[in-house]
C-alpha cells in the first residue's frame, strides 16, 4: 500500500474537499497532534466553506519533530473527529489539505525558508502551540542564533526580518495553555527587543501586530494506538498515513481581539464555532468552572462508587444527575456570561464526557485533586455561598468526596504516592504534592470530625480557614460519614 500524497489520494477515488495549491497565508509554530486537529482543521474548513484559499506552513519548534513525515505526504493527513453530539454517535473522517509543507529551522535550509516566508506579502497569520513551556524568555538566546532556541526568540527573529523588509504587520494567535498567552508572548518578544537592541522603531512596528490571547477547547487523543485499528483504517482508505490524527467532534476557539478581527478571520463566514471577544477571561472561567469543575466535582466519589472511566459515569443516572445538578443549580448561577451560552456549553459537556471513542480514566483525572478542587470548584462554592446565603449541596458533597478519596483505608505512603483501598477491595495510589499526601498520612487515624476539621482549617490547602463558613464543617463531616458507611453513590443520591 502506498503512502498518502495527492497522487495516491486521487487514485483512491476520495470525494471529499481537497485544495492542492493556494497562497501560504499562515506560519504555524508547532506540527503536533493538537494543532493539526484544531487550528489546521479550522483553516481547512474555511477553505471549503468560505473560499478562503490559504495554506499553512508548519515549523518544527524543537530539534526533533515531524517535518520529514509531513513533507513526504505533501502536507496531507487524515483527521477523525469522534464523539457524541446530542446523544448521537459521531465518527467523521476528513483529509486535511491546508498544510503545504513543514520546515525544520534547526537545519540551515529550514531556517532560511522560515525567514524567507517572513518576507511574503501573502503571510497574514502566525499561529503557535509550543506547549505550556514554550512561551518563555531565555536570555541565552542571541540574534545571530540560527535559530534562537526559544519560540519567542525565533518569533522575534522572524518579525525583525519582516520589519526590515518593510512588510505589513501580522495577526499572531497563541494557543498555548497558559493564561494570557498572547500577552505573555508579546512580553517575551519585547524583552528580546530590549536585550538585542533592535530599536524603538521595530518595537512600535510590533505594537501594530495583533498578539491575540486565545482559548482553545478540543480534546485531542492524537494518533490511533491500536495497530489493528490503524491497519484496518489504512486498508479502508486505500493508503498508508503516518500522520493520522484523532480529535473529539466538539471544538470552540475564543480569540481576544478587536471586533474587526472577526470579519478579517474566515471562521465566521465558514460557520465555525469561533468568537472574537474583547476579553477571553470569562470564557476561560466558563471552561474551568464547568468542564474542568464537573470532572473534579464528581470523579473522586464516582471512583469510590466503583466506576473507572468517565463515559460509564454518564450511563448511571445517579452520577450523571449529581453532576448536572452541580452544574445547573450551583455552578452556572455563579457565572456572569450569557445564561443561554452557559447552558449550551454545559449541555455539550455531557456529550463530551459520553464520548464512545475515549476511555478517560477517573484515576488520571484524580491527579493533584487538592489544587484542582481549589482552582476549579472552590470559586463556585464560595460565590454560591455569598449569593445564596446557604451551602450548595452537591459542591459540599464533592468536598467530602475529595476527603474520602484521600483518606479511604490508608495503607502506606511511598515514593509513588498515598496508597489507599477502595470499598471494592482494590488499592489505588493518590498522586498529589508531597505535603498534601503527608498531611493525609499523618491524619490517617483521625475520626471523621477531627479529619474534616484538620482539612478545612488547613490554610496551605485553601488559602483560608474554611471552618469559618457557617455550617460547612458539620455538613462535610456528615457527608464523609455517609460516604464511608452507605457508599459514595448513596451519598450522591442524597443530594438529588
Q: From the alpha-carbon coordinates, what is the Rg to the nearest angstrom?
A: 25 Å
User: So how many helices?
Assistant: 22
Largest sheet: 8 strands, mixed
- Provide the β-strand percentage band: 15-25%
Shape: globular
For the record, the CATH class of the largest domain is Alpha Beta
**CATH architect. name of the largest domain:** 3-Layer(aba) Sandwich
Helix content: 40-55%
Query: Structural class of the helix and strand makeup?
Result: alpha/beta
Characteristic key phrases:
single chain; 496 residues; alpha/beta; Rossmann fold; N-(1-d-carboxylethyl)-l-norvaline Dehydrogenase, domain 2; 2 domains; eight-stranded mixed beta sheet; three-stranded mixed beta sheet; 14 strands
Tell me what the structure shows.
The termini are far apart. The chain is α/β, with parallel strands linked by helices and 496 residues long. It has helices at residues 6-12, 33-37, 39-50, 67-72, 108-117, 151-164, 181-195, 200-208, 227-237, 259-264, 281-304, 310-313, 317-331, 339-353, 362-365, 369-388, 393-407, 434-442, 448-456, 459-462, 472-486, 488-493, and strands spanning 24-29, 55-59, 77-85, 88-96, 99-103, 125-128, 171-174, 210-217, 245-248, 252-256, 274-277, 412-414, 417-421, 427-430. Helix 6 links the parallel strand 6 (125-128) and strand 7. Strands 5-2-1-6-7-8-10-11 form an eight-stranded mixed beta sheet. The chain has two domains: 6-278, NAD(P)-binding Rossmann-like Domain (Rossmann fold, 3-Layer(aba) Sandwich), CATH 3.40.50; 282-493, N-(1-d-carboxylethyl)-l-norvaline Dehydrogenase, domain 2 (Orthogonal Bundle). The protein contains 22 helices and 14 strands. Helix 11 (281-304) runs antiparallel to helix 13 (317-331), helix 11 (281-304) packs parallel to helix 14 (339-353) and helix 11 (281-304) packs across helix 16 (369-388). The longest helix is centred in the middle third of the chain and has 24 residues, at 281-304.
Amino acid at each position: 500500500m502506498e503512502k498518502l500524497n495527492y497522487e495516491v489520494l486521487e487514485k483512491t477515488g476520495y470525494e471529499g474537499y481537497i485544495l492542492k495549491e493556494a497562497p501560504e497565508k499562515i506560519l504555524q509554530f508547532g506540527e503536533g497532534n493538537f494543532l493539526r486537529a484544531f487550528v489546521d482543521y479550522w483553516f481547512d474548513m474555511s477553505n471549503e466553506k468560505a473560499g478562503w484559499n490559504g495554506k499553512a506552513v508548519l515549523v518544527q519548534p524543537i530539534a526533533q519533530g515531524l517535518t520529514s513525515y509531513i513533507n513526504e505526504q505533501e502536507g496531507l493527513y487524515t483527521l477523525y473527529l469522534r464523539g457524541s453530539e446530542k446523544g448521537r454517535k459521531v465518527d467523521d473522517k476528513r483529509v486535511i489539505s491546508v498544510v503545504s509543507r513543514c520546515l525544520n529551522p534547526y537545519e540551515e535550509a529550514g531556517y532560511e525558508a522560515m525567514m524567507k516566508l517572513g518576507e511574503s506579502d501573502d503571510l497574514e497569520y502566525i499561529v503557535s502551540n509550543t506547549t505550556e513551556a514554550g512561551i518563555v524568555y531565555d536570555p541565552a538566546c542571541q540574534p545571530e542564533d540560527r535559530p534562537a532556541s526559544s519560540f519567542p526568540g525565533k518569533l522575534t527573529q522572524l518579525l525583525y526580518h519582516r520589519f526590515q523588509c518593510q512588510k505589513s504587520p501580522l495577526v499572531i494567535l497563541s494557543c498555548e495553555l497558559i493564561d494570557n498567552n498572547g500577552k505573555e508572548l508579546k512580553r517575551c518578544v519585547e524583552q528580546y527587543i530590549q536585550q538585542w537592541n533592535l530599536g524603538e522603531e521595530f518595537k512600535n512596528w510590533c505594537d501594530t501586530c495583533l498578539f491575540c490571547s486565545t482559548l482553545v477547547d478540543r480534546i485531542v487523543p492524537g494518533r490511533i494506538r491500536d495497530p489493528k485499528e490503524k491497519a484496518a483504517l489504512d486498508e479502508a482508505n486505500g493508503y498508508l498515513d503516518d500522520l493520522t490524527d484523532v480529535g473529539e467532534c466538539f471544538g470552540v476557539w475564543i480569540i481576544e481581539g478587536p471586533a474587526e478581527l472577526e470579519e478579517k478571520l474566515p471562521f465566521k463566514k465558514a460557520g465555525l464555532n469561533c468568537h472574537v471577544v474583547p476579553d477571553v477571561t470569562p470564557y476561560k472561567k466558563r471552561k474551568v468552572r464547568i468542564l474542568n469543575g464537573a470532572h473534579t466535582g464528581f470523579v473522586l466519589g464516582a471512583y469510590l462508587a466503583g466506576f473507572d472511566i468517565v463515559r460509564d459515569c454518564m450511563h448511571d443516572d445517579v452520577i450523571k444527575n449529581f453532576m448536572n445538578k452541580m452544574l445547573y443549580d450551583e455552578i452556572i448561577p455563579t457565572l456572569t456570561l450569557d445564561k443561554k451560552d452557559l447552558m449550551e456549553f454545559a449541555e455539550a459537556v455531557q456529550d463530551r464526557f459520553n464520548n464512545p471513542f475515549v476511555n478517560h480514566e477517573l484515576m488520571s483525572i484524580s491527579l493533584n485533586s487538592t489544587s484542582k478542587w481549589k482552582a476549579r470548584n472552590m470559586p463556585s462554592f464560595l460565590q454560591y455561598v455569598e449569593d445564596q446565603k446557604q451551602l450548595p449541596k452537591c459542591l459540599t458533597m464533592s468536598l467530602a468526596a475529595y476527603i474520602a478519596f484521600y483518606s479511604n483505608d490508608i495503607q502506606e505512603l511511598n515514593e509513588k504516592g498515598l496508597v489507599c483501598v477502595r470499598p471494592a477491595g482494590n488499592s489505588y495510589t493518590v498522586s498529589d504534592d508531597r505535603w498534601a499526601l503527608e498531611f493525609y498520612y499523618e491524619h490517617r487515624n483521625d475520626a471523621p470530625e477531627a479529619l474534616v476539621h484538620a482539612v478545612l482549617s488547613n490554610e496551605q490547602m485553601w488559602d483560608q480557614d474554611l471552618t469559618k463558613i457557617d455550617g460547612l464543617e458539620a455538613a462535610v463531616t456528615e457527608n464523609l460519614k455517609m460516604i464511608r458507611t452507605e457508599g459514595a453513590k448513596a451519598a450522591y443520591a442524597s443530594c438529588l
